[in-house]
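Shipment paperwork, digital attachment
Item: protein structure file
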Amino acid sequence: MKPFKNPRFDLKRQHTKALELSLIAALLIIIVGLKLFPGELGRAPDVVITEFSVEVEEIPLTEQKVRPPRPMRPSIPIPTADEEVPEEETIESTDIDFDEIPPPPPPEEPEASGDDDVYRFIPFDKAPIMIGGMSALMKKIVYPEIARKAGVETRVIIGVYINKEGSPLKTQVLKHSGSNVGFEDAAISAIMKMKWEPALQRDRPVAVWMSIPVNFQLREIKEET
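Attachment content:
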């Protein structure tokens, strides 16, 4: 059995009728507006034009500094065989005979002077050699008796001036023992008894200063004696 619909509550029919009434009302409003305000609806909106002014500022030209020209290169006189050229503008030829050049003078040998009394370095090519070496020197050392009894050991350095013949001429104490028992005198006495092969400078004997370290040790003195 088909259900019964009340026309008063039919939503579909009511929706269609409301849509038709809305369209009719909109058309009436547009028509009334055209009749009442014909110029306002058809007129285009006013356009505001803004004027711009551009000012052109004159820029001064950049001043370019002109560099001074480079100086001319000095002229160099050159030798020529042309007789018309003045003599001051030519270079005279020079003949050098290298065979006639004298040889250089020989090196000056150090001479004995008052400066030899003070220890100073004298250049040499070959150092002097003590004949017999340190073992021969230790045999000539007499150990100070006071130091031997007290068992004192030390080390001294003696400077000795050796002449061209290899003989010691002068001595100077370069390092003391710090005690006054005779270590320096014993070392100097033994060094003055030694002979040397002289120092050489350019294959020639020269007089030089040498420093000799002497160790005073009771064990070595006993072995040497």
